[in-house]
Amino acid sequence: MTVDDVLAALKAQGSERTARVLRNHGAHDPCYGVKIGDLKLLQKRIKTHHELSLELYDTGVYDAMYLAGFIADASRMTKRDLTKWLKTASKPIASYVVAPIAAGSPAGWELALEWIDSKKPIANIAGWSTLSAIASLRPDTDLDLDQYRELLALVEQTIHAAPDAVRYEMNGFVIAVGCYLATLTHFAKQTAEKIGKVQVDMGNTDCQVPFAPDYIRKVEARGTIGKKRKTAMC
User: Fold this and answer.
1) What is the pTM of this model?
2) What is the full DSSP assignment across 162-216?
3) Is residue 79 included in any domain, yes or no?
4) Within a domain: residue 185?
């Protein structure tokens, strides 16, 4: 399929009703309003197609940028590619597309640390989400667990002063460390308890901010602490 073929398919599958919901969650225009399930059906048809993913992302169409994440080869994404993607990302694209792809890139860890130190909230969002995704995907033996512990301490110190969307991602980071890094679960729960309830303005949505200690305890009760994911794209 060409870029034009994909855009035509996306436009045909979109609806204004879904587009309104996506905009409430931070999607930018143009947004055709394609459901995630339909994007995944297109993914099955296209499979991994890295060159097409780069072209789709460059269209600036929200749905095409999201689909780009599903068909990209993360291992081929360079620091330059990811930096370029972040420049045009809206909040959900930064969190749910750029970050998962960065997590699979050789440049992901280095970039994530740069992003959380940025003065730009959109970079902070991508950075914390990337660090969460890396924890969920990579074996613990490939991770710097001491640095993850230090990052938990950083979250504890700074989360309540961070912007809303960044605060949400930082809370998610504490949850990710507690759920995916078994040796840090106890420390993550302690950190979460010290942080307490995280307040975030979720706008015109029904979304809630998870209470991190309870979330981690539920995963413990299921017996799935430390179980890794196959992909961070969802």
Assistant:
1) 0.97
2) S-HHHHHHHHHHHHHHHHH-GGGHHHHHHHHHHH-PPP----SS------HHHHH
3) no
4) yes
